[in-house]
Amino acid sequence: MxxxxxxxxxxxxxxxxxxxxxxxxxxxxAFEEARRRGVPVLLSVGYSSCHWxxxxxxxxxxxxxxxxxxxxxxxxxxxxxxxRPDVDAVYMEAVQAATGQGGWPMTVFLTPDAExxxxxxxxxxxxxxxMPSFGQVLEGVRSAWADRRDEVGEVAGRIVADLAGRSxxxxxxxxxxxxxxxxxxxxxxMGLTRDFDAVxxxxxxxxxxxxxxxxxxxxxxxxxxxxxxALEMVEATCAAMARGGIYDQLGGGFARYSVDREWVVPHFxxxxxxxxxxxxxxxxxxxxxxxxxxxxxxxxxxxxxVRELRTAQGGFASALDADSDDGTxxxxxxxxYVWTPEQLRAVLGERDGEFAAxxxxxxxxxxxxxxxxxxxxxxxxxxxxxxxxxxxKERLLAARAERPRPGRDDKIVASxxxxxxxxxxxxxxxxxxxxxxxxxxxxxxxxxxxHMDWQARLHRTSRDGTPGTNSGVLxxxxxxxxxxxxxxxxxxxxxxxEFAGFLLDTVLVQFTAPDGTLYDTAADAERLIRRPQDPTxxxxxxxxxxxxxxxxxxxxxxGSSLHRDAAERALGVVTALGGRAPRFIGWGLAVAEAALDxxxxxxxxxxxxxxxxxxxxxxxxxxxxxxxVVALGAPGEDDAVEVPLLMARPLVDGRPxxxxxxxxxCERPTTDPEELAERLxx
Length: 682
Hints:
alpha+beta
């Protein structure tokens, strides 16, 4: 019989709806039930494409005996971290403080007042590698709750007090809240250089994650200063990822991370946010260098998102699972993606099978489990016949499509769709792909129609065109605003700027403290044991620095000193952390580069169907000056109402013109696209 999760919309929660565990969704009613029964709460947090979440579910939550213990002695609460990043953040902070590490599934035991007292992540069904079994954990917690309740309460109280004492806002308020200066950004570059893997690209060791936000900073730093070292780190990392197993060599798109430092074996889940961020990085790398590899990867990644993640409503689904049926009824990680030499020959024949094995690095020993290989592009020392490669890839992709497909989490997350809007709009504009710009427009339209209410408040998620009940957090407002501003620059439709302004006004009212620091949840959001606040990047830009970036761009388009001042105050955290931890505040560093450069403001005026207008617009979009904003409008129209940067910008001798400005102070206008391009090089 289904449990309470059967009434939820989250695909992750629905995966647990038939468990024998009597799950509750996160709710006041669940904690009231624990209080009524006098039992602790088991909080289990995960997400639908999480491999070890599936493993623990199969091993423990589907076990009737363990479920009986849980149901008798606990109230079990299941949370999708992608729906409730605030709940996840608060308790993950406690897990990391107590254990020194974190991850998912996250397993936390709470008092009925939601105070944590025992922590962990994955627990196996039997003791393993010094780790207790989940059954042993349940028995230990049950016994402690029954026999040492006062001690448990004291522990929980100390943990909550410790979390409350970790006030980032107070510590930052005591420091210098100005944006970083050039020497501080140079110091951040030096810190990244020390962490750079000069052999394999990327930063640090295994596991190795694609450093999208850091790469954006390095591209902007190169644009502003001409630093060859910054560009070299971007080029080496992007080439290594594109040629490695973390990139899907047949279907395009990036996996979540590489388990090794060489980018060979990925954790196979594919997330919308990774692909949106990396699509934009490769498009920007092409813009800076003209790299054919960067162009190919940007377009293939964009096409992957549209082909595999786009929903019927025009938004983009959250993720594809790492696991799928391996053809024998067994779910296995990577089964959809890996190949043996024998499988290649079966699809391609002997001759092309041998060629494909050489081209993609598939060996008899394999690079993955059971002799299978993850496809890569090793350096073979020669150029392969492009037509032959295309034929091989087409046939292998068709054969792979016959395999059981990984599951798809089809909920729409506002923040991640904002990232996708920005990436697809810019990629479509750079490479003359109006279909990609249209996909970005459709997603933006969904975000406005379904996720945004008349008070400019966002729902974090939707599914099948119906908004979820979870309120948007800071990164939803920031990344949706960022996407809308990028779309406005590409399409010239000022209404997107207006909608972005509504969202950013909500950021100023609901998420910003009087000292300029930012919180991840709104002032009127559900009260948790701590109001989460984190300026550091995780898999996506932190809401704090993403908001700084969107506020800065909006101010550049509108001349709003209110939004500019808020952006600069928010960048104080980059001054504090950029030199010490540049890998973890990459987007903040990128925004700081834009603030230091201006950013440049480009107003392009002219009839939209005039080739001269289009040439100026394209030159403006391809400008590499950090954080450049672009406004496009026809003279005499109402665009200046929505985009004040266009106000009082006439044609020049009846010809389309471009105005390059900083803080609304403009150079003389130009009608020459080449001259405009030169002005937008730092």
